[in-house]
Amino acid sequence: MDRIDLQSEMSTRRSPRLAPITSMPDTEIRPGLLDLPEMRFQEHDVWLIFVSSLDIMLTWVILRNGGEEVNPVARLVIDAWGLNGAIAFKFALMLFVIVSCEVIARVRPVTARLLIWFGVLVSAFPPIWSVGLLIFHHTVPV
Which of 61, 65, 66 is nearest to 83 (CA)? Predict the structure, then answer.
């Protein structure tokens, strides 16, 4: 066989040790700090937004029925800017938690998952407490 024929024959055969060109490497590719990959905790974020929104709504119902805000920071925000300020404040806190967890997940995914779960659980406590107060004081609007 000529040298050219041997090279063409070798190029058409695949070596069993070489992976095809389209295969991905076995190592996980981590995004850079400024990259925008898909969010890792989308379901948790929805729960965080849900319970935080319930907190705003139920707090406003309690305030309209003569109750008081017990959180001193939230009380300052409500006194200064009213309902719009409370909504902006709450959503700023939610945004901070969501972005923090996504950034932490790039380095420590387990820590970030625990943090977002903790955020959801902590944010769920005020709505549960508020519903209890409304039931106990029979001030649920009809």
Answer: 61
Section 109-113 average pLDDT: 92
- The pLDDT assigned to 29 comes to 67
DSSP per residue, 13-68: SPPTTSPPTTPPPSSPPPPPTT-----S-HHHHHHHHHHHHHHHHHHHHHHHTT--
DSSP state for residue 107 in the 8-state scheme:
T
The answer to whether 141 and 61 have CB atoms below 8 angstroms apart is yes
**DSSP letter (8 states) at residue 106:** T
Mean pLDDT, all residues of the chain: 82
The residue ranges of every structural domain in the chain are 40-142
CA angle, 61 as apex, 57 and 65 as ends, to 5°? 170
Phi-psi bin for 68: left (phi > 0), alpha (psi -120 to 50), beta? Answer: beta
The whole-number average pLDDT for the span 118-130 is 94
